[in-house]
Amino acid sequence: QVQLEESGGGLVQAGDSLRLSCVASTRTFSYRAMGWFRQAPGKEREFVAALDWSGGVSYYADFVKGRFTISRDTAKNMVYLQMNSLKTEDTAVYYCAANRSPSLARTIMSREVEYDYWGQGTQVTVSS
Which among 31, 69, 90, 101 is least buried, having the fewest CB atoms inside 10 angstroms? Predict the structure, then answer.
């Protein structure tokens, strides 16, 4: 069974950094674009960042630009989200997801329906 598993979440203070990791159970994901989403309490899940299969094309939500960086290590079937300068409003459950395509189409890559495999999520809590 294909699986994605996130790790690296935790409780940090505002201004701190965290690196989230996502491991894929098969090398199939090496040929998929990957994304990170998050869901804060009482809110809908939202797009955070995405990276194409080559690692050369990335997109970010405006609220994380300049603070978060998505990357991948294809040899290890890993995708990362480096989060710097964390804010209290970044508190959420963060999800890793595999896009249906190797590439990212700018107009649709932030839509959840474009991703067909999801991890269980990892909690990130940022205190003031």
Answer: 31
Encode pLDDT of 101-123 as tens digits: 999 999 999 999 999 999 999 99
Question: Token pair of 53, please?
Answer: 């299969």
Determine the residue type at 115: Y
Q: How far apart are alpha carbons 100 and 108 in whole angstroms?
A: 12
41 class by beta-carbon count within 10 Å (0-12 exposed, 13-18 middle, 19+ buried): exposed
For 25, 27, 63, 103, 109, the CA distances from 57, given in Å and listed in that order, are 23, 20, 18, 8, 12
67-111 per-position pLDDT tens digit = 999 999 999 999 999 999 999 999 999 999 999 999 999 999 999
Compute the distance between CA of residue 6 and CA of residue 4 in angstroms, rounded to an integer: 7
Q: How many percent of the chain have pLDDT more than 70?
A: 99
CA–CA distance, 71 with 91 (Å, rounded to integer) = 21
